[in-house]
Write a structure and sequence with these properties.
- This protein is an alpha/beta fold and 282 residues long.
- It contains ten helices and ten strands.
- Helix 3 crosses helix 5 and helix 8 (218-228) packs parallel to helix 10.
């Protein structure tokens, strides 16, 4: 699953608490940790002072998480936070980015220069967002959005890996139909086939998946389903459909909150793990 984590820690929010809980999971106990703190661009006369302060913050974070210092690759960088996180993720080849989020939506994120929103939108790597206003619980109940796509199947596999080694852990797979569809002649809904395939896939990975079918707006329905099953972690997939030539460009539709994944980022009642699919060719 995840073996090389980039933790972008601002010293606020619940990221460190989430990391402690992740490291309790058997499959993540041996993961390599890269702890990043970004110092904003400053005048030359103040750089050294801010760097020393950042070193103290990083050292305190390592202690609070309860890690052996030799296990953590600590990184202090100066620059724009959102660009630096993306650059360092590539540099260390992270297979999971963990960041905090203030839960700002739509135009608020742009006006507040939200680093987590930009990384969430631009990174092609899996990303775990932990909102500042959430109570972070131990991961026992995982919910995954099931859509029958290839990247959705990858999200399902990762959700199964989370649950498989958790004593008493449960996995719920939710499929959302935008509207009620007429059943087939056999009386089944199109969603039944998607969920049945997900149940079979989860079973091959050693997990019993509880299927859930809901209708309505996808983002809102996923959040409501997560609330009803009291999910501790929500796993979703998103296909990056921008052409390769536009990979480095900000997608304003996403930044303004029109994407399903962005709605879930802001409103889900639990931390959100986003699995991003590959980009389409130009």
């Amino acid at each position: 699953m995840f073996r090389n984590l980039l933790i972008a820690d601002s010293g606020q929010g619940h990221v460190e608490e989430m990391v402690r809980m992740l490291l309790d999971l058997p499959q993540l106990r041996e993961a390599r940790l890269n702890l990043l703190h970004v110092v904003g661009e400053q005048g030359a006369e103040t750089v050294e002072g801010h760097r020393r302060e950042a070193e103290g913050l990083v050292s305190e974070a390592v202690s609070r998480i309860g890690l052996e210092p030799g296990r953590v690759n600590t990184l202090i960088r100066q620059g724009d936070a959102k660009q630096t996180v993306l650059k360092v993720a590539d540099e260390v080849d992270a297979d999971l980015i963990v960041m905090g989020s203030r839960g700002l939506g739509r135009l608020q994120s742009i006006l507040a220069n939200s680093a987590s929103q930009y990384v969430f939108q631009l990174s092609t790597r899996p990303m775990l967002l932990v909102r500042d206003d959430l109570y972070v619980r131990h991961v026992n109940r995982v919910m995954v959005a099931v859509d029958g796509t290839g990247v959705g199947s990858e999200a399902l596999s990762i959700a199964c890996q989370f649950v498989r080694d958790i004593p008493g852990g449960t996995l719920t797979g939710v499929h959302v139909s935008r509207r009620d569809l007429a059943p087939t002649r056999g009386g089944s809904q199109p969603a039944d086939a998607v969920l049945e395939a997900a149940v079979k896939r989860a079973r091959t990975l050693g997990v019993e998946l509880k299927p859930m079918h809901v209708t309505g707006d996808v983002g809102r329905a996923v959040c409501e389903a997560a609330e009803s099953c009291r999910a501790d972690l929500v796993v979703i997939a998103s296909q990056d459909r921008r052409p390769l030539v536009a990979r480095g460009l900000v997608d304003l539709d996403r930044l303004l909150g029109s994407s399903v994944s962005d709605y879930i980022r802001v409103h889900a009642p639990a931390p959100v793990l986003l699995i991003r699919g590959g980009t389409l060719s130009a």
